[in-house]
Amino acid sequence: MEALHIIGEEHQSLAAILHAIRFMLKEVAAGKLAADLKLFQAMVHYLDAYAEKRHHPKEDLLFHRLPQRTADGAEALAKLGLQHAAAPQRMAALEQALAAYVADNSRFDNFARAFETYAEFYREHMMLEEDVVLPLLRKHLTADDWTELDAAFRAEMADKSGKDGKAEDFSALFSRLVDCAPAPIGFGPRPFAN
Amino acid sequence: MSGKVLVVKDLSVAYGKVEAVSKISLEVGEGRIVTVIGPNGAGKTTTLSAIMGLLPSSGQVAFDGCIEQVPEVERMVVRGMNLVPEKRELFGTMTIEDNLLLGAFQRNRHGHRDHLETMEEVYALFPRLKERRHQQAGTMSGGERQMLAVGRALMAKPKLLMLDEPSLGLAPLIVREIFRIISELRRRGVSILLVEQNARAALQVADYAYVLENGMVKMQGEAEMLRNDPRVIESYLGLASKHQEMLAT
User: Fold this and answer.
1) What's the Cα-to-Cα distance from B19 to each of A41, A109, B70, B73, B154, rounded to whole Å?
2) Count of pairs with CB atoms under 8 A, one residue in A, one in B
3) How many CA atoms lie within 13 A of A40 on its CB side?
4) What are the residue boundaries of the structural domains of chain A, listed by start?
5) For A111-125, what is each residue's pLDDT tens digit?
């Protein structure tokens, strides 16, 4: 069940980034922190490139195995399928709000609202996966299923090219985000440089 | 005992007439991360303290193939065991570099003169410490203090590093980074005994786990097995902990 381990790891990383953006938005809104626009951009990029392009394809691979073993969870799977399919539009809305804020800082509230919408959606999305689908996978998939899925996940993890063909070291990016994020959520503040 | 850096048998610790830890047995294999999870007051910190020789105990502690009849702190450090305590216990008015050097004190006293090389290894692992090396430790943020505490322990070049609640009080972003570094330490050959209330994070990084409740080992097994055990999910990885993690601000 290494595949479940990897999904859990990725959820923790994504939850940490969501938490960090939310914290910084609150601090900026309260006038306690000067906004680092490049850091916001890098974190939103992480959500896009890591969650939508690398994490969801792995989940699709995993979740497609469930209907082959049981009818349980069909409703949740259908919902998750629609949510994954709508990922590009969802991310585009967040990126557009951020771009508008970068161009005009009076659009801060608009970006903060767009982020809250995204974060709340994503929290519910991960909870649905962890509370409904992952337990069903544990219960119904066979040892052979896990052998195949674990091998597929390992291959995907080894393939640094990603689905979009762009090489990106997400571990290094994550470390840079931690380094630049302001205390107490990170080791900064320090300006994020591309 | 081959392949085991630490073997603890029937370890018991009592505070007066109250037994805080009762006949605990656990092992840490070379190059492995072993975690002890459990609720507050389960005896996790007491267990680490007794192994390290900070508390009187009964039972047997064998470290690196040699039985310690009465574990004693200084001897354990010299032999290659080190503890990063929950409260970090840094010297706030000393510089970061001086705090690190203190970590090499026992090793240096026993004739090893490799502390500067070791410090560069620590700086390579924690570049932030190098940047701030001349600043007082008391000026550091919580995450930086945890890094310094780990770095100071690494200055003793431990075979076994024991970490007591390294994620305590830290934001999710830093917790992820701390656990990434713990994985990196394993890759470098350091064996790790990790005590954590954050079971979710601990079980993600560990190879093997013990569940401690009321001073006794209630469950144990490969971390992957425990991650998928309904009782562990219900008690330690359930809805409440996930909500807490995902909503924490």
Assistant:
1) 53, 56, 18, 22, 32
2) 91
3) 25
4) 2-180
5) 999 999 999 999 999
Closest partner residue to A12 (CB to CB) among B141, B204, B227 is: B204
Which of A16, A179, A187 shows the shortest C-beta gap to B176? A16
Which residues in chain B have Cβ-Cβ distances shorter than 8 Å to A5? 204, 224, 227
Q: CATH second-level architecture of A2-180?
A: Up-down Bundle (1.20)
Work out the number of other CB atoms within 10 angstroms of the CB of residue B219: 17
CB contact under 8 A, B143 and A171: no
- CA-CA distance, B114 to B127, in Å (whole number)? 19
pTM strictly above 0.90: no
Amino acid at B57: S
Q: Which residue is listed with tokens 């425990």?
A: B226
Helical ranges in chain A per DSSP H: 2-29, 37-46, 56-63, 74-85, 87-103, 108-128, 134-140, 143-158, 170-180
Please name which of A165, A184, A182, A186 lies closest in space to residue A174, comparing C-alpha atoms. Answer: A186
- Interface confidence (ipTM) of the complex: 0.83
B225 to chain A: closest CA residue: A1
